[in-house]
Design brief:
Largest sheet: 6 strands, antiparallel
Number of domains: 2
Shape: globular
CATH topology of the largest domain: Aminoglycoside 3'-phosphotransferase, Chain: A, domain 2
Strand content: 15-25%
Helix content: 40-55%
Number of strands: 11
Strand order of the largest sheet: 1-2-3-4-6-5
Radius of gyration: 19 Å
CATH class of the largest domain: Alpha Beta
CATH architecture of the largest domain: Alpha-Beta Complex
Order of helices and strands: EHEEEHEEEHHHEEEEHHHH
Distance between the termini: 41 Å
CATH superfamily of the largest domain: Aminoglycoside phosphotransferase (APH), C-terminal lobe
Structural class: alpha+beta
Length: 297
């Protein structure tokens, strides 16, 4: 969804004027809604379209490194799977990329065989691409979010204790089979763009070196893939289906929901955005518990 910005705030006006070769008086600005962390705008200026991400400054607790995000975004552009980076300033809290004319994707769109194959090829491309200057482990992230949520006075539901115990077991089970590669770690439907020929991936703020199965599990749970869909995903990615890969995928599917749950709980205690973060966290915790009851490591 989007809405035209009729009156540009002084702060946004200054940000636009600080972008090289931009003049806010000549810009048409439209706010793009749906972001959970940052404010996002479509800026039409100099006969071109750009996406301006106004980066939230209160994100260190989430493990977001803005320099790393910008570098990962540039790597994606260099690989041909992300829009060109036009401007980045950590000090000003702004990242500007080219706008991609594309078809917005919904969950059911990911199951189209031809599109899923192109998505997998895109994921494999950045998994084998240049290193990203950060690391990511969902289990470490969950523990960090848990501790920070408590420090910020968040009253966590009692179900988090058995969930954390299960996460510890999964972490131990996977310790001997993990590999490491560049990962996106936030493969929501809205972070994929399809221009009819290429699949683009955007929003690299959680990118880091990590387990490729987390990307696959994160993708699976966000797109609500069933068992048959997951089998197809693994076959497309590895060229064959193996039961050991299926188990690894299921663990990381669970880890994805648990990360989202504690992300929401932590955000409920620190974010200034008017979003029901606690409800978001509880929804993902409930799904984690429901799915984990069918798979105990």
């Amino acid at each position: 969804m989007s809405k035209e910005v009729n009156v540009i705030s002084t702060e946004l006006l200054n940000l636009i004027n600080n972008v090289p070769n931009w003049n806010a008086a000549e810009a048409q600005v439209t706010e793009l809604t749906g972001g959970l962390t940052n404010q996002i705008y479509l800026v039409e200026i100099n006969s071109k379209k750009y996406v301006l991400r106004r980066l939230s400054s209160n994100t260190d607790h989430l493990g977001i490194d803005r320099d790393c995000e910008a570098e990962a975004t540039q790597i994606a552009a260099d690989l041909g799977i992300g829009p060109h980076v036009y401007y980045f300033s950590k000090e000003q809290g702004i990242l500007v990329v080219d706008f991609v004319e594309s078809q917005p994707l919904k969950e059911e769109d990911f199951l189209v065989p031809e599109r899923l194959e192109r998505i997998v090829q895109t994921i494999k491309k950045y998994h084998s691409g240049p290193s990203i200057p950060a690391s990511f482990c969902p289990f470490k992230t969950v523990r960090a979010y848990h501790d920070l949520a408590l420090e910020n006075g968040v009253k966590l539901p009692p179900e988090v204790e058995p969930a954390l115990a299960l996460a510890l077991k999964m972490d131990s089970e996977l310790s001997s089979v993990r590999t490491c590669c560049p990962c996106h770690n936030d493969l929501l439907a809205g972070n994929f763009l399809d221009d009819g020929q290429s699949i683009w991936v955007i929003d690299w703020e959680y990118a880091g070196m990590g387990d490729p199965f987390f990307d696959l599990g994160n993708f699976s749970v966000n797109q609500k893939l069933n068992a048959e869909d997951k089998r197809r995903l693994l076959t497309l990615y590895f060229g064959e289906y193996r039961e050991s890969d299926s188990t690894h995928l299921e663990y990381m599917t669970l880890a994805s929901d648990l990360r989202e749950a504690f992300w929401g709980f932590l955000q409920s205690g620190v974010s200034e955005m008017d979003i029901d973060y606690y409800g978001y966290g509880k929804e993902h915790l409930d799904r984690f518990l429901a799915n984990s009851s069918r798979l105990t490591p």
